[in-house]
Amino acid sequence: NAGVTQTPKFQVLKTGQSMTLQCAQDMNHEYMSWYRQDPGMGLRLIHYSVGAGITDQGEVPNGYNVSRSTTEDFPLRLLSAAPSQTSVYFCASSPLRRDTGELFFGEGSRLTVL
Amino acid sequence: SQKIEQNSEALNIQEGKTATLTCNYTNYSPAYLQWYRQDPGRGPVFLLLIRENEKEKRKERLKVTFDTTLKQSLFHITASQPADSATYLCALDRGSTLGRLYFGRGTQLTVWP
C-alpha cells in the first residue's frame, strides 16, 4: 500500500493563479481531510469529507474548494491564490470508526504564493 | 472554539532521561486524545490514542495519561534516545464529529547524547 499520496510536493504560484493539490489514498478510508500548517501554529483543518459526495468545512475554509467524487481521491482547489495561502498542506485519511480515529498523513505539499 | 496548549515550544533533555510533554485543553471535553510525531519535512505519524475513560496508555517506551478533571494529557518517553528528537503534536476531538481533530502547535523535543 502506498498510503496517502500528495502531489505536487512543491509549487510556486503567482497571486491570482489557480491550482489543485491532489490527494489519493489506497486504504479504502471513508474519511479524508486537508490541513494547513504554518510556522508557530498547529495544523488547522480546511475541509473534510466523510465519504464520496459528502464534504464539509473545517476551521479555515475560505479560499479553498474541495470535492469527493470517489473514495480514493480528495483534491483541494485554490481558485485565486493569495500570499496568505503560502503554507504546507497535508492531506490525511482515516477509517471512520470511533474506536480508532487515527489519521494517516501524506508527506505534504509546500506551496509558495508570490 | 477548542483551545489546545502544549507546554513549551522546545524541550531539551539528555539521553537516557524521561521526556515529559504536556497538552492542556479548554472548553469541550474530548472523547479521545491522540499524540503524533512529526519529523522535519515529513507528515505527522500517529503514536498513541487514549480515550476519555482511560487514565493511562502505554506502548513500548511511550506512556500517555489523560486527566479529564485537569483537562490535561501528559506524554512520556522513557530512556530517551537522540532518535526520539522530533516535534510531538497532541490532537483531540469532541467525539460528536468523527475525524475532526484539533491540533496543538507541538513541542520540539531534542535529545542530546
Architecture overview:
The complex is a heterodimer of chains A (114) and B (113). Chain A has no helices and eleven strands. With 114 residues, chain A is an all-beta fold. The model of chain A has no long low-confidence stretch (mean pLDDT 93). Chain B is mostly beta strands and 113 residues long. Chain B is built from no helices and eleven strands. Chain B has strands at 4-6, 10-14, 19-25, 32-38, 45-51, 56-59, 62-67, 72-77, 86-92, 102-103, 107-112. In chain B, the strands form two sheets. In chain B, strands 2, 4, 5, 9, 10 and 11 form a six-stranded mixed sheet that branches. Chain B is globular. The chains are: A mainly beta (114), B mainly beta (113). At the A-B interface, strand 4, strand 5, strand 9 and strand 10 of A face strand 4, strand 5 and strand 10 of B.
Largest sheet entry of chain A: 7 strands, mixed
Q: Which two chains touch over the largest interface?
A: A-B, 29 and 26 residues
Silhouette of chain B: globular
Query: What is the oligomer described by this structure?
Result: heterodimer
Helix content of chain A: under 10%
| Beta-strand share of residues of chain A | over 45%
CA radius of gyration of chain A is 13 Å
Unreliable runs of chain B, pLDDT <50, ≥5 residues? Answer: none
Q: In DSSP terms, counting alpha (H) and pi (I) runs of 4 or more, how many helices of chain B?
A: 0
Radius of gyration of chain B equals 13 Å
Tally of DSSP β-strands of chain A: 11
The largest sheet of chain B, given as strand count, sense and whether it forms a barrel, is: 6 strands, mixed
Order of helices and strands of chain B: EEEEEEEEEEE
| Structural class label of chain B | mainly beta
Spatial separation of the terminal alpha carbons of chain B: 41 Å
Overall average residue pLDDT of chain B? 90
Number of strands of chain B: 11
What is the helix content of chain B?
A: under 10%
